[in-house]
Fold:
Amino acid sequence: MHDSRFAVIGGGISGLACARALIRHGRQVRLFEKSRGPGGRLASRRTPSATFDLGAQYFTARSPEFQRELEAWQQANVIAPWPQSVWVCDDGDWHRKQDDHIRWVGTPRMSALTRHLSQDLDLHTQCRIEHLHREESIWWLQDDQGLRHGPFTQIILAIPSPQAQPLLAPHSQILSEACQCVEMSPCWTAYALFEAPLPPLETSASQWQTAFMNGGPLRFVARNDSKPGRGEQGESLSLLATAEWSQKHLERDADWVATQLLAAFAERYPVPLPGTKLLDAHRWRFSQPASAPSVKTDTQDFQTDSCGLALCGDAMSAGRIENAWLSGHHLGNHLSTSLETAI
Ligand SMILES: Cc1cc2nc3c(=O)[nH]c(=O)nc-3n(C[C@H](O)[C@H](O)[C@H](O)COP(=O)(O)OP(=O)(O)OC[C@H]3O[C@@H](n4cnc5c(N)ncnc54)[C@H](O)[C@@H]3O)c2cc1C
Structure:
């Protein structure tokens, strides 16, 4: 007999949401993730003295469906509201951003949320899927060690579309084309741990927790140590570059990128910065869809093919955690209720 019927490739928030929806409907699901742990773009880097979020820095909840899910995450103590103090820096001019959005962050780090969601799942980590094979309507996966996994009746790809496309191309023209329609922007994220707290600004902006940066290589800066659950962590920043700057310098080495992005921040921060104890950078080749709408309103935020392949994730919708979760959740519910699962 078959050990699993549904395979989900990708242990980011969309793959986890899809797997959990399928399991709620009583389906057998196996998840494959190429990294050491789940999370994808909710990744965090932990060092003995600080934790940095490298991808998404926070998220919002606009749909009632996602807001309901958030209540469960709050009860499990894996998220908390943050930031309360959002600023904008226009070429060195700092001012407070006024809006009504409640923003959320994983505690004690962003990846704690996806760790929580992966509990009790049949998750295979450090397992990169390189090929899909179909034999008499049954699917098999081949990983980077040459191992075969299966059989499965349904394969779900919950990975960025440029990574999904080569896996899908031999089997599904419709899904392969859907992937090709989505261009994804890169993002360099630098992260710095300082020897001392940042000197306060002359203005009341000294308590800023995040800042949208306009007019330079940076688009966003977050003070990791101001996030809930970070304990006594020292002053530390995540510095996210714009898509344009990231694209231009995509192949540069991380040291060079980190130095440039910190210097760009220093130029816009009116008081000299302390020295750094740690400075590095992480490259996201596929950070967010470049062309998708910022808020997806219809419910068809996934794609299926009758051959037993399906796609979900933020590339099928918009580049936010909420959209990625909704996409996986909707696909899991759709497959559970409408697909023929008998072999
Ligand atoms: C720098 C940055 C800033 C962001 N800021 C925000 C923000 O402020 N707010 C917000 O809401 N969203 C933000 N986002 C977007 C948000 O992080 C994503 O929309 C969301 O995490 C996407 O989830 P996903 O599950 O679709 O994909 P991913 O998180 O990319 O998950 C895909 C997973 O699949 C794995 N994988 C890939 N290929 C294979 C393979 N062949 N075999 C096995 N595993 C594979 C990957 O390792 C990864 O874990 C940001 C993203 C980045 C990078």
Notes: The pocket of flavin-adenine dinucleotide is lined by residues 9-15, 32-35, 40-42, 55-59, 128-129, 158-160, 163, 187, 189, 240, 284, 287-288, 313-314, 319-322, 324 (CB under 6 Å).
